Amino acid sequence: MTYRSWQPEHRRRPRLTRRGKLVVLVGAVLAAAAAVAVPLLLIGGPEKPAPEKERTLLIPEGWRGGEVYAAVDRSLGLAAGTARKAAQTPATNLALPAAAGGNPEGYLFPATYPVGRATTAEGLLRYMVDTAGKRFGTASIAEGARSHGLSVHQTVIVASIVQAEADTAADMGKVARVVYNRLARGMPLQMDSTINYALGRDTVDTSQSDTRIDSPYNTYERTGLPPSPIGNPGDEAMAAAVAPAPGDWLYFVTVRPGDTRFTANYAEHQANVAEFNEQRRAGASS
Predict the structure, then answer these.
(1) pLDDT of residue 52
(2) What is the CA angle 66-68-69, rounded to 5?
(3) What is the pTM of this model?
């Protein structure tokens, strides 16, 4: 057997027929096209949107409607007043109880809500009101409201006062009891929180002139409950309104943080108030 000796590859000169030249030319064109196609494939046409970063909006217990609307506007990047306008527009179709008279105050339930690109003010407000409907619409709350001779809506009003007045969660049941004890005796509630709501402020300093303002929320001059909730209560405040702590208290004052004193004795209450005022003066001077 004989063997052909092969020349090194770089020394061989291929002899191409016309057909061979055509094949090489076509191959070169295809190679060039592939070189162009690769970056196009890497680009992949229109860029896909990045995955949406999860965002939330926290509504704390006790916030008033105005605070909720402002937070919704900020969270969604809307012009100030947009959420309030949406809440007041019948087309938004908030599932409020008839007793609320179209006022969402008390039913913008405090919780953490998801916020996305498609979230609207209307949708977010409906979510809050629907959540309140589920939390306040239970049989146990309806039964608890009836046990105090109140409707569920009136109980939400009580809960909103409890939320605003109680210094701690542990005090909520006692504050609710003061409300019911005063209602039972036909006494005005005399709650500073309702005055603050009427004046659109938040302070522990209530003057004599404040207690004489002409407002249905002036519970110093008017007996009974105010005409609407004064904020948006959470579960704990609602539970306290339904099942208040037992006691004969008619008065209370938070002398210092964590030290709220309840009593049925007016003279004792006056002494507690004097101590509160002394603490305020000492704090101001320091």
Answers:
(1) 66
(2) 65
(3) 0.81
Residue 86, strand partner residues: none
User: What residue ranges do the domains of the chain occupy?
Assistant: 55-136, 150-285
Question: Hey, what amino acid is at 155?
Answer: T
CA–CA distances in Å: residue 120 to residues 6, 22, 125, 127 = 79, 64, 9, 11
Which residues make Cβ contacts (< 8 Å) with residue 217, sequence separation at least 6? Answer: 194, 195, 197, 198, 226, 227, 230
- Alpha-carbon distance of 70 to 120, in angstroms, equals 14
Six-digit token pair at 111? 């919780």
Exposure string for 10-33, b = 16+ CB within 10 A, e = fewer: eeeeeeeeeeeeeeeeeeeeeeee
Dump pLDDT digits (tens) for 42-58: 445 566 666 667 899 99
Look at residue 54 in the predicted model and tell me its pLDDT. 81
The residues with which 262 forms a beta bridge, in sequence order, are: 252
Radius of gyration, alpha carbons of the chain: 35
Q: Each residue of 184-225: pLDDT tens digit?
A: 999 999 999 999 999 999 988 899 999 999 999 999 999 999
Please state, as a whole number, how many other Cβ atoms lie within 10 Å of the Cβ of residue 179. Answer: 24
